[in-house]
Specification:
Belongs to the cation transport ATPase (P-type) (TC 3.A.3) family. Type IV subfamily. This protein has 1122 residues and is of the alpha+beta class. The protein is 42% helix and 18% strand. The longest helix is centred in the last third of the chain and has 38 residues, at 871-908.
Amino acid sequence: MIRVRNFNNDKFSIYWPALAAANLNWFCDLGVDERRVDNRTIYIGHQSSLVNEDFIPPKFCDNRIVSSKYTVWNFLPKNLFEQFRRIANFYFLIIFLVQVIVDTPTSPVTSGLPLFFVITVTAIKQGYEDWLRHKADREVNKYQVTVLENGQETPKESENIKVGDIVQVKENETFPCDLILLQSTRDDDTCFVTTASLDGESNHKTHYTVPDIERDLKSLNATIECEQPQPDLYKSLGPENLLLKGATLKNTQKICGVAVYTGMETKMALNYQGKSQKRSAVEKSINAFLLVYLCILLSKALVCTTLKYVWQSKPGQDEPWYNKKTQKEKDTNLYLKMFTDFLSFMVLFNFIIPVSMYVTVEMQKFLGSFFITWDKDFFDPEIQEGALVNTSDLNEELGQVEYVFTDKTGTLTQNNMEFIECCIDGFQYKHRGASSELDGFCVTDGPVNKLQQKAGREELFLRALCLCHTVQVKESTEQDQREDNLDQVDGLRIDENVLQPPQKERGFIASSPDEIALVKGAMRYGFTFLGLESKTMKILNRNKDVEMYDLLHVLNFDPVRRRMSVIVRSGSGEMLLFCKGADSSIFPRVRQEEVERIRLHVERNATEGYRTLCVAYKRLSEEEYAQADAGLREARLALQDREEKLLAVYNQVETGMSLIGATAVEDRLQEEAAETMEALQRAGMKVWVLTGDKMETAKSTCYACGLFQRKTELLELTVRTLEDGERKREERLHELLGEYHKRAVQDAPPVKAGGTRVCFASNQDYGFIIDGASLSMVLNSSSESNMRSYKDLFLQICQNCTAVLCCRMAPLQKAQIVKMVKSSKGSPITLSIGDGANDVSMILEAHVGIKGKEGRQAVRNSDYAIPKLKHLKKLLLAHGHLYYHRIAHLVQYFFYKNLCFILPQFLYQFFCGYSQQPLYDAAYLTMYNICFTSMPILAYSLLEQRISIEDLIEDAALYSENAKNAMLRWGLFLYWTGLGAFHGLVFFFGVRFLFSNPALQDNGQVFGNWSYGTIVFTVLVFTVTLKLALDTRHWTWINHFVIWGSLAFYVFFSFFWGGIIWPFMKQQRLYFVFANMLSSVSAWLVIILLILLSLLPEILLVVLRNPRDPHIVPLLVPDKHD
């Protein structure tokens, strides 16, 4: 409700939006203005209400839109805080501080440099992404608008609009804020808008000016009292006077409106979900594995510290004759020294925590995202664009999706309705080629007047199509002529051969795209709608004669009645009621003997995915019309229970009709939409359709794209089903949820054990349908216990259904559904697809956005953007599968090779008196993860294809192998950890066995401790690198280069590092050690034998393995029961 007080007339008025169509909406009262707490008062043009009053303008938020995350001032602290929430980053910060403060065996550079690199790279990447969001916000906020100030047109930036400003908007411009319509250039004081960026619908909606407003807005001195901002779109969309931000003005040269909600208080902004930090399942697994390895590290440090002091407690061990303590060491507190030793052991063993893994993972994600961008299959020649990757942090999530939430209009469909066929009195008519017999129905070619004996009924049916609608004819402008005279909804041309010359350059606009399709269907058979002028509808019949009908009443469509009607008076004075609607709504209101002739056609068309409507009519006598007219006027004047009274009159008028026929209209699906949906379901994904569209349209689309099959039993929870019976909605909701739960969950056969996804063992498939109003009752029940119960029942029902359709959804409701599923048991991975601003909230809650013709909001806020729905198949089944496999192997491999690296260091302490003596040289410690072993795993994680892309796309069931984070489960993690421990033990004790020989060199000398460590390190580097070579299934020249090049670089570096005396080093531990080591045949033999012994189990596994399928060679098949 909006209340306007006009001080020029010393009165206030109440405007009821729904009464606008009848122009019966302006009531006057001389009483006192009642103020409600939840209302806001707005002074139009910022003029004070009374001259004698002190005017203090109320404060409202400005019109700036903010979607960015950081500012210049908070970027550094906020970003650092978020990064150090990562366990590894925080841990290495602590280790770095310990190395700086305490005298430790290794330099602070070994941990500080990699940490600085990781933090810097991540900050630059996140800063760049946020800069793009700032840039997008700036484009919106700096957009030039026209504001009327003191009657003058003043240009302003959008962000400077204030509540109360009178804003001027021209055709094809978007509204910069929420406006109350005050003035329009159209003669009937209306304007047309499209709300594609709000609810995905590109059809035109009619809005009305506030009545009795002065034409000269300079002298307007009034206030508006309206409700506080609220996010519900559907309480405002429709024939009323609130114009929403983001909507576009159409078919109207210019309007003026007063700003009532601005900035972050507009309905569009209130439906925007803030951009939160998304963390992948792989990152969560990494954090869990890090905790395990951190516990191993603490245990190692604790064991070594304890054994050191146990060993030193023996006589002569604490202070041997060759290593006397200084006085400072003697005076040091024992417990402080124990703590310092514990920290030193922590630093010595800290390389078991792979900080360089974060660098490699960041590089893998960043570089890997280019493969999506470079994929030529994603290029769309129509828009000359390919795929976009806005965030590379979630590449691997594309391979584990369990729930797909998709918008309908512009995503599943092209929003392009086409008239397919009609049925008149049981006879089927198709506008096709030759005549034929089909299912016993007469199929005619061309104009229906070929069947002369049925001409009367056919013409009546075609007149009904031409009259029963809200379509308007738009006069073409110069711009329209340049655009080739396209219609405003579906872009189809009007047949120029049908129209008379004055109407040749006209287009159709309507509140529903299927209405235009029906009008065009009538045009095919010779009846053309010429337009509505002064309540007179004109039709051009097939004899080229113009028929004129007075439009008396429009009984608007609503989701409860599921039909709409018009009452017209013909030129001969005959009163006719034409009605069209869903079959379930029309059949009970017509003569039953007429139903059977039509029912079979309607059911067949519905199963084929067409949108079906039945058409009926009724002749009204003067008395019947007078009674209906009086009833409608009285109901529209009612201030209380107005909707119920109107519904009662509608139901009274729409009875005793005669059924003429039915129509079939197709909303064209996106290219390969059905194949894509089928592939996703075969891959084990559940598909939910979340749309703001009507239920009938959305249901037809679900049938067309194969989400609902002919055998699917639909469970409906909508306003219509809740109003069945005499009980309250809450009671009916409880009953229906219980009934559906029993059928879909309790009575369903148990799911087969070992399945990673829900599989349906029963022959009965269920589909679930719910609308926005019913969902609000489920999620916002009056009782907390009931709300939890309803929510659980609803979720369980949906999870046991093959597909779910949610219609008439507000944007925030879409996000609520995604969040509810995300938070359910098992935390399934979700993916959202949409192309409009109304889809932004659910995209932010999940992952994916698709480019569409309705705007770029979804693309800007998505993590990935692809031009067409069909590209989703390859994105998930191929790219997603490979991304997940690559990064999962990378993570497991990093932990494995670091355990191999540090376990010999730990074992060495048992043979050096726990003196914290390093086994490896500092150069090896620093370069092991950075240079010697980093490039092969990076190349593997970018290029590996254990299954070819063609096979992955062809066999969608392969996708389910990655379900539930299969390759990062604890079983596989323990396998890799055990493998690392086995290799570490082989390295250390194998070399120790070699050193039991007293003479390893020709001169009789033995190797020292640095030679010992160098041999261990050489075996380590070759083993972990060759292990990765054995795991590689897809070899490229890059793999060969980095694997053999890394090994060659290690050998070259060891010769180079130990072969030169470096003047900047105080001590050079490895001088000629490597060359001297390789002079020993025993060292060569041990190195080769230990490498072969370590890799022998892996080699036998590869040789003896029997692949399940010719194109699948799994490295390690995950246990489905794990």
